[in-house]
């Protein structure tokens, strides 16, 4: 018997003894009583009840007006879809784009060699013209390109079945189908070599502006063609890059993904647009933001922010119209978690190596034992904590979903990394949010752990560092500058709402800072209200906050329905639905202490997490229908 087999046998023996114990039986009865009371409770029945139908919203006058874009796109599909699809298929520009894309996807050595060689030559020419000369690095790049040019091999073909790819798939659960990565026919014609030379030289000449520009041009073209080829690739890129890339890069990627989906929706006669009640409310909220921006106290700034909001909120429609299978959903969630792991790894490295010089987020007199708070790529510890609240339950959901032991071990390690990073943010609101997240997940997915929690709870203070305990118990302590700062800002914001409750003041820091000084308490200066719900209220008025609250209610109601639609107890899809809903609930709890939408990338992440949750619900209901038909 192997080592793992020995430990498994030992654990099963111990577990058998535990199950026969009086304490276990008592805790099971307590859990059964609590679970039954919860199932019959007012809160559960409130979310189960059909208060209003999403179909009713869509079929109303407002629904028909807001659904006009989808009606128009369906009309375009019927009238010009076939002709447009044929023109795209026969376009020389599209063929050139396909040649470039598929040769890079195939890792064709000759194509990459020529592209690299001519890019180096072009960059050298730019260096000569600008007077900076030819660097040794460019000469080395040119030599490497010339060597690659001598071989004509598709390296991607050798990755099929390789140990590296098998290990990646085994650990992450993302199965990569290399049979569909590239089309062989595009790696054959001689014209591709001319294309490689022309594009390489043109990109190289752009080094006249910046030495890194050639790489950005070639990489940008690759990303552009990948997303235009498949909107789902845009979804994957956006989910992975959101916490890592600059805001305007994410705006461009979101809009590119939307444009790619629009082209697909018009050209593909089998495509059917999904416009649900959540989408109805999102469009309604966008309209309120637009109206508030037009009448804003800082109109130009608010309109520019509205455009960012629009790009990110419309990405919801990209996700729910592309993520349609269980594999697509769990691949997207795995990328979400892997990206989060990189963010958290950088955050821990910040703490270990002291890559933090800011002390603006700490009351240095009250918390002398806390030397730093990590913020990773998200510029603020609270923002990092808000992001982790959304990603850590998904990581636990994947841990629950994976069947392979090594994969489970990896996601367990990543969850531990994320939890550690959350602790190191020292964000009390996020800690409270995490308690809510854990409570929801344990209750619905593995309720018997409450028994273990009750046993372990008295011992928790013995193992938690004193600095964390002091930070946590300071919640509500007005001697803490960060607490008093927020309370005074809330008072000032309430004063603003007395005068601007109907119309709002417009989105953005400039609009807020134009009005807030007239209502501030104790001379407090603030860029926003430090409360997500108050901020939406003060920016978009009573109608805007009402739409947002109804949207949240509908989301949780849909998630409850999706969880109930999962075919059996212990369903992996059901566990993931609970994980996503728990993350959003924890995020909203933190939103009571901070303006979570102050960071635009977290704003984007929030909306695509909602979309992934709705995609999971749609899958659960589709699978339920299939089971009933069978």
Please describe what this structure looks like.
The structure is a single chain. This protein is mainly α and 630 residues long. It folds into 2 domains: 143 residues, no CATH class; 303 residues, no CATH class. It has 29 helices and no strands. Helix 6 packs across helix 15, helix 14 packs parallel to helix 18 and helix 15 packs across helix 17. The protein is globular. The model has no long low-confidence stretch (mean pLDDT 85).
Tell the overall outline.
Answer: globular
How many H/I helical runs? 29
Total individual domains = 2
Regions with pLDDT < 50 over 5+ consecutive residues? none
Mean pLDDT score: 85
Cα end-to-end separation: 42 Å
**Structural category:** mainly alpha
- The total beta strand count reads 0
Instruction: Report on the biggest sheet.
Output: none
Strand proportion, as a percent range, falls in under 5%
Q: Summarize the helix and strand pattern as letters.
A: HHHHHHHHHHHHHHHHHHHHHHHHHHHHH
**How large, in whole angstroms, is the Cα Rg?**
27 Å
Q: What is the percent of helical residues?
A: over 70%
